[in-house]
Specification:
This protein has 173 residues and is α+β, with helices and mostly antiparallel strands. It has 2 domains: 111 residues, no CATH class; 46 residues, no CATH class. It is 31% helix and 28% strand. A hairpin with a 4-residue loop joins strand 3 and strand 4. The relative contact order is 0.14.
Length: 173
Amino acid sequence: MIQINKLNKGANMNQVISKTIQFGKVDYLNNGRKNCLIEVEINFNGERFSASGNIWNHLKTDCYSCGQNLDEIKKFIPNNKLFNRIYLIWKNYHLNDCTAGSPKQEEYLKSIISKDSLDYSYQLKCEKLKEVNLLHDKSYLYQNKPYEYGTAWLNTSIPEDVKKEIKLIQEVA
């Protein structure tokens, strides 16, 4: 079962359209009862994407898991096509206006860091970039200087086809 709650805070591109999608109940406590509702909220203003999830207790008075927990949710609904599409968009574009690195820095870090790795702190990322002379990206100027990794929040553009897909999910799903 999928249930949609849509909150349109305005038609302006700067206004966020928020949609909560219910993906049914799961046996989160591993007690043989599927009574914990999974919800995922997606927010999009035409440029900035974010998503978060909730796994509710059986009374829906508190969450067992919430926030940036889509990796955990995926364990419970691995074959749900809609969730998997949201999950991939989340992995690639969540808070896309808060990117720590230039495109070259991010590309290098992605090439050396496993997507499942939690071992790379900010300091370690800086050390790895320094090793290859990318801590200060001379090919990316920020305020007329080579951009130093992590000194500003940069925007990673969402491709137009992905923007259309997000809007379609918000309208139809």
